[in-house]
Structures are given as C-alpha cells and as structure tokens.
Amino acid sequence: MSVRHLEPCRERVSTGDTIGAASAFIMNVANAGAALHDLSIQTGASVESLSAFASVGKTTGTTADAVAAMMSKLARNMAGAKEEGKGTGLALKALGIDFDTFRKMKPDEQMLTLAKSMDKYADGSGKAAAIQAILGKAAAANLPFFKDLAQVG
Question: Are 118 and 131 in contact (CB under 8 A)?
Fold first, then answer.
C-alpha cells in the first residue's frame, strides 16, 4: 500500500482532531462562564467584573475564586465594622476611604476603590498592615493583584 492511499484517512483524522479541540474549547468556555456566574451569585459582583478581575489576576496568579474569597472576607469584615472602631473601619480611614460611602458600594466597586486607594501609598509594612486589617492576615499576599488592579482600573 502506498502513502497516497492513506491521504484520505489522514484528512479525516486531522478534521476529527480539529473538531475535538474546538469542542473542548467551547466546553471550557462554557464551564468558565458557569463558574463566574456562580461566583457572581455568591459575591454580588457582576460576572463582567469578576471576569475582568480574573484577567488582571493572571499576571499575579490570582484566580477568580481568590478574588471572590477576598470579596466575601471584605463583606464579613464590613458587616461587623464600625466607623470609629478598630480593624476594618480604622484601616479604611487610614487609606483615605470614607467608611459610609464604601459600605454602600457594590463588592466589585469596593475592590477597585481599595486598589486605587492603596496604590497611592508606598509599598511596605504599613500598606500590608492596612490590607490585613481589611481582608485578614493572608491578604498581604494579594498586594500585587491590587497594584495591578489599580493600574488597569
């Protein structure tokens, strides 16, 4: 049998591979959209904002799930915060953010406001302490994400 006889088979295999790859791509896009929809329901942020935040997070390894976790932590801390109190309220004030205005924002607006406010301050332990007071002890690891978010804004 010559190679020439195998040509039609090669074309069918190639077409099948292409269809399989396209099908897998479409399924991945659909799954990602469904996951963002679920995170939107959990956080109150729009799918569009979560998608944009996840895109920004790619350079720092911050996933949409991590962004949603930060939003949830922020919501919990805001629910228990008082303007004059310690912790979240005091840290927001230190960053120049009006507590009452911030409380009324949507979660995605809060994240962007937080990023832009932190971007005005020099990197270092003071900035890390502020974000930890707002989002918890592990939040300092997310400072690169907030810096990128402020830049893209």
Answer: yes
Return the C-alpha torsion angle 30, 48, 136, 114, nearest 10: 160
Lowest-pLDDT choice from 37-41, 108-112, 146-150: 37-41
The DSSP letter of residue 100 is: H
Of 117, 118, 139, the C-alpha closest to 67 is: 139
Q: Which of 56, 84, 90 is nearest to 70 (CA)?
A: 56
DSSP-based three-state secondary structure for 17: helix
Is the whole model's pTM more than 0.90, yes or no? no
Task: Please name the residue that has the structure tokens 């990023």.
Answer: 115
DSSP at 140: G
